[in-house]
From TrEMBL:
Keyword Transcription: no
SUPFAM superfamilies, sorted: UDP-Glycosyltransferase/glycogen phosphorylase
Domain Glycosyl transferase family: 217-358
Domain of life the protein comes from: Bacteria
Keywords from the named record: Transferase
Presence of keyword Transferase: yes
Organism: Dyella marensis
Domain annotation Glycosyltransferase subfamily 4-like N-terminal: ranges: 72-206
TM helices/strands, residue ranges: none
PANTHER family named in the record: SULFOQUINOVOSYL TRANSFERASE SQD2
GO molecular function: glycosyltransferase activity
The protein's name: Glycosyltransferase involved in cell wall bisynthesis
Amino acid sequence: MHAPAHRDDIHVLVIPSWYPARPGDISGSFFREQALALHWHGCQLGVIYPQLRSLRHWRGLAGSERGVRREFDQGMPVLRSPGVNPFPLFHGAACRWWVRHGLKLYRLYVAEFGRPDVVHAHASLYGGALARQLWLRDGVPYVLTEHSSMYPRGRVSRVQARIAREAARDARRRFAVSASFGAFLEGYFGADVGSWEVMPNIVDASFGERPLGEPAAEGRFAFLTVGGLNENKGIHLLFEAFARGFADQPGVSLRIGGHGPERARLERLAVQLGIADRVTFLGALTRQQVAEELARAQALVHPSRYETFGVAIVEALAMGRPVVATRCGGPEGIVTARDGLLVPVDDIEALARAMRELREHIDRYDAAAIRLACLERFGEGAVVARLRDTYETVAGRAPHQARERVVVPLRQAAGQ
């Protein structure tokens, strides 16, 4: 439990492009966790979120909430407007609709809490687009952190690319959550948009405060993976690697946290590979349940094909658990030799070897050292200090304390 810090007068409005819809929802939970960390470390901070659902999900729209919903999350004001996006296939119209709802929330927010000094938008589509409109209409400067893997995966239309470029171009500072992603964004948007700095997500403090997990019982070992059950997460490749690597070790098991369209296919694949009795599908997990599963498991495996960061990885490291991950973007800037092993994307044999090596040499990994190094890089204190200095600089003020702002250049971060 945190206690609120002494407030200074910097006022930050956070605009996430997606956000938890209810307690326990992990969609956008890292936006919430970062906002709460800033709130508890002295920023006057609020959140506005146009919570618009697509007409594609029409079955859940009947009886759904309407109008503006105002709440206080551990004292942090959150204004959201549950509603419908009637333009799922018309990206320009969808953006204008999102921004329209956001402007209404902004006016209500200012009337109650005052005009912010700076806006922090998370993802260009469409939080960045709203932040840009606030800059054009009300002169509030904004910073932008990009998180979305849609760009490198080729999932962005021309209209969306134009909207994102405009949002990135007019931001006072641009952040990417990993060095490799920042390098990609610099090439994608071009020199006219400007450079991208590295600003990682914060690992939720609760992971670093829990007791380190106990060693596995004799002859037992559990790998955990956490993520959406979709093609990009590579769970089908993990099943192939697990079947190859541990056919002769019945005490080794695999636990799968998450839900998604691939579940039925993965269940069939587990049967075909003869590993169904050692694979457990856990379904969608809350943050607390993720921590509980990490305490039970001995290691995390992250077989994704592309990631901008790797929230589950830093959560595992904060619990002292070593990691096997693919070199899919974000993990290269997180996992060191102290923390675990990295393998090429889509290389089933390499993944199998790495999992087996980690299993056989688990005693080489110092849980306390893994946790300490993780918190030094991704803990609240490290990230919040840089963000607060950023806000104060963008707002035209001297830094809150006489500390030097640390900016990690992309090339230096990529070479770590």
